[in-house]
User: Which sequence fits this backbone?
């Protein structure tokens, strides 16, 4: 099933989770450089973690049968460091990821995810490792994320999450999308046009 | 904070509104696109079901991936062909004017747009390419943008941007014979460093700048970005107006007179405030050549390759890396360094006057044995005009190859590449490791006339010696 891309207010996300363990996973590992010469982002979903997956020959979390259709990714520290390429969050999103939880995120990666409507939520090292264990023990578990409560939970367990205030507000109000923010100013754009001499025969 | 500068005035005209977080929504008057950074932006647009808001303010050409030997379609490289046909399709379905192969107006985006009179004073110009600063030569605010900004400009003709500070670089005197604007900008980058301009727009001014032709001015603004400045600009004057008059997209008739009035009003005020000011003497600049792996690692032709040990602390490591990568010995003169390949072209130095100056050096000589030398005009118009003046013949007779227009070996996304450890004398703008298509290939940046001199002698040469003969 093809999932819709994020749009509007991002408040609740529901689904199964998968785990990528390790600190400092950089954008080169998320999407290797040779996939950058492409005319569209659409094939990137299949290429996410390409080199790691090849090495593990089918046993990488993104290849395991039980993880098909999962939409929540749980990672460790400094996820998404390295080159600023926009292809990395694009690749994760196109594979199906809609929410990432980790100890911390590289700043540019965080911003690029936010611009796609994917929240990157943080939790303490202990909490993350506990959550990762639970997910790995029972990959079929459905989790509920609620932005307003800053939590992810199931019937038994609940985890406290965090996100900086500015990003929280953008996600909550649905104003995370740079393009639609710019388009909001339509009237003022048209006014600017009216006042530019070179677009009005220099009158 | 700057005030009363051309940058401030043009900025104010294009301000749409303040955005949360301190950026400004800025209107883009001219959006240039090409085959490499636009396709993903178009597909993002389609995914969001958005239209191109002002299709008449976006103009397209193809340059980065075009082969320069045989431009027959389909191209031999299927990926290049796919990029070009994707651009054609996108332009067609969104009603964007495309200057394609065989159109007489195709060329490197920063060469063809000014030629057509598309770039004018007082505009904001954006393009998914760092060397967009070129267009600042006309008194425009011009800057490179990334793929998601290309999408934003297509959708809204605007983008989120923070205002830059303005540094005026005042050049006194005039350039000596055999010294060109390429030498001047390499000299400036050497002095201020490759990161010296981060957060700044550069205003180039002073008697030495006023004497320059538009083509010379474009070379300087083109490389502002190599000094870290996202925009570089020059106040418009009679030279600018003379260049623009009668071009295809320039204002005509009564409009021209009104345009002149507006353009003149944009020039930085005599009491304008700059965030920083620097003054240099243009007469003392010598032909300049890079020896390293950043455009800031330049020295005059008379100097020796610096010894990393005696450089400032923060430059030592990169200088050591550079010596090792370039396989050049510290304390040896740069003059006489043997080279393998000579490339004249690019958006920095692929214009008519560049080819003309280089041809003066070449005339009556032959390319040294074992050297591969080639000329790639910056655009169809440059190629045609050069042929009309017989410039192609001068190069061909001397043993140069004469190619079709494109970016070519500036970044080697087409078949023109260095091989292995080859070292080039190149009129382009970047000497990064692997830039010219071989992972360990080497690049020496210099003026086109200096490249011509290197081709004839097979080694780095002071072009003034050949001009005297
Ligand atoms: S000539 Fe070089 S720098 Fe200029 S647009 Fe082409 S690739 Fe970029």
Assistant:
């Amino acid at each position: 099933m093809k999932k819709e891309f994020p749009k509007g207010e991002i408040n609740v996300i529901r689904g199964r989770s998968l785990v990528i363990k390790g600190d400092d996973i950089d954008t080169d590992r998320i999407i290797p450089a040779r996939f950058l010469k492409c005319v569209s982002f659409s094939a990137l979903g299949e290429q996410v973690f390409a080199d790691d997956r090849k090495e593990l020959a089918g046993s990488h979390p993104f290849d395991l049968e039980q993880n098909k259709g999962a939409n929540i990714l749980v990672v460790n520290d400094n996820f998404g460091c390295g080159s600023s390429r926009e292809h990395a969050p694009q690749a994760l999103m196109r594979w199906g990821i809609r929410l990432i939880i980790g100890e911390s995120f590289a700043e540019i990666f965080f911003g690029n995810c936010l611009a796609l409507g994917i929240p990157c939520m943080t939790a303490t090292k202990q909490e993350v490792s506990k959550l990762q264990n639970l997910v790995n023990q029972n990959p079929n578990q459905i989790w509920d994320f609620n932005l307003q409560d800053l939590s992810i939970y199931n019937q038994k367990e609940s985890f406290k999450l965090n996100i900086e205030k500015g990003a929280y507000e953008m996600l909550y109000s649905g104003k995370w999308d740079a393009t639609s923010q710019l388009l909001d100013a339509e009237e003022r754009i048209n006014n600017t046009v009216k006042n530019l001499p070179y677009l009005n025969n220099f009158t | 904070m700057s005030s009363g500068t051309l940058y401030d005035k043009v900025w104010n005209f294009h301000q749409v509104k303040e955005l949360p977080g301190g950026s400004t929504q800025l209107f883009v008057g001219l959006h240039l696109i090409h085959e490499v950074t636009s396709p993903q932006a178009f597909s993002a647009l389609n995914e969001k079901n958005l239209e191109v808001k002002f299709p008449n303010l976006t103009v397209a050409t193809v340059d980065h991936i075009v082969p320069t030997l045989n431009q027959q379609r389909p191209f031999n490289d299927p990926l290049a062909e796919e990029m070009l046909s994707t651009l054609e399709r996108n332009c067609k379905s969104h009603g964007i004017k495309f200057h394609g192969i065989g159109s007489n107006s195709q060329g490197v985006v920063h060469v063809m747009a000014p030629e057509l009179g598309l770039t004018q004073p007082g505009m904001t110009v954006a393009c998914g390419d760092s060397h967009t600063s070129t267009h600042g030569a006309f008194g425009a605010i011009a800057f490179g943008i990334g793929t998601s900004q290309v999408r934003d400009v297509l959708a809204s003709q605007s983008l989120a941007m923070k205002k830059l500070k303005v540094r005026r670089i005042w050049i006194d005197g005039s350039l000596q014979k055999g010294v060109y604007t390429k030498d001047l900008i390499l000299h400036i980058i050497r002095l201020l460093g490759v990161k010296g301009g981060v957060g700044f727009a550069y205003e180039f001014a002073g008697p030495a700048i006023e004497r320059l032709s538009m083509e010379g001015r474009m070379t300087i603004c083109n490389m502002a970005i190599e000094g870290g400045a996202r925009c570089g600009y020059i106040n418009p004057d009679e030279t600018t107006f003379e260049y623009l008059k009668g071009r295809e997209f320039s204002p005509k008739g009564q409009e021209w007179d009104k345009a002149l009035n507006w353009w003149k009003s944009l020039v930085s005020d005599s009491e304008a405030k700059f965030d920083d000011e620097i003054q240099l003497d243009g007469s003392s600049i010598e032909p300049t050549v890079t020896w390293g792996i950043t455009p800031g690692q330049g020295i005059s032709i008379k100097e020796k390759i610096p010894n990393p040990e005696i450089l400032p602390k923060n430059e030592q490591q990169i200088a050591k890396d550079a010596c090792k990568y370039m396989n050049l010995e510290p304390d040896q003169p740069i003059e006489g360094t043997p080279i393998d390949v000579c490339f004249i072209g690019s958006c920095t130095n692929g214009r008519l006057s560049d080819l003309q100056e280089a041809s003066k050096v070449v005339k009556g000589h032959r390319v040294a044995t074992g050297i591969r030398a080639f000329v790639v005009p910056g655009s169809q118009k440059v190629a045609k005009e050069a042929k009309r003046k017989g410039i192609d013949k001068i190069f061909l007779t001397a043993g140069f190859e004469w190619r079709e227009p494109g970016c070519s070996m500036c970044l080697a996304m087409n078949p023109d590449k260095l091989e292995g450890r080859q070292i080039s004398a190149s009129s382009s703008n970047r000497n990064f490791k692997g830039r010219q298509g071989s992972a360990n290939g080497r690049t020496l940046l210099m003026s086109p006339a200096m490249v011509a001199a290197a081709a004839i002698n097979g080694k780095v040469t002071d072009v003034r010696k050949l001009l005297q003969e």
Summary: Chain A has a mean pLDDT of 92. The domain at 12-176 of chain A is CATH 3.20.19.10 (Aconitase; domain 4).
